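Quick one:
INPUT:
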């Protein structure tokens, strides 16, 4: 009975550690929660649209927002609330993070795209998302998001 219960405890602890990466993979595979799905690389899409001539002159307004988890003493906000970009062109946006506590804190950001129908057209080229950011007390940094809208 002791071996069975010990095995159960080990399995539960292992499941809790595996939950975040498994959930992330599930969301990326299914597009759940506005997570962007990948079918071809951004470089392949840019090359395909350049070759096909499927570039438009219409501008799209991409709006940014940010939320911070309860109890996290950070100020986290987009530097600009909106960027106008033409499909087929890449764009750059920034977020500002500030540690308002008296101790160093490490944070990780996630992202999603809404409405969900737009998520398949939004391609991150480079982003601070899913990377640990360690801020010293009172430190403030600007973090870039380089993205591309698929025509």
């Amino acid at each position: 009975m002791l071996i069975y219960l010990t095995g159960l405890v080990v399995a539960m602890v292992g499941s809790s550690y595996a939950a975040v990466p498994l959930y992330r993979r599930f969301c990326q595979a299914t597009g759940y929660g506005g997570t962007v799905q990948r079918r071809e690389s951004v470089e392949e899409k840019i090359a395909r649209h350049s070759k096909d001539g499927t570039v438009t002159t219409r501008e799209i307004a991409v709006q940014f927002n940010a939320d911070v988890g309860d109890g996290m003493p950070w100020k986290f906000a987009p530097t600009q609330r909106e960027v106008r970009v033409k499909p087929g062109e890449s764009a750059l946006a920034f977020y500002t993070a500030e540690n308002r506590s008296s101790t160093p804190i490490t944070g990780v950001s996630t992202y999603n795209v809404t409405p969900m129908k737009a998520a398949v057209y939004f391609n991150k080229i480079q982003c601070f998302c899913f990377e640990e950011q360690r801020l010293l007390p009172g430190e403030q940094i600007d973090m870039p998001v380089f993205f591309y809208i698929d025509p």
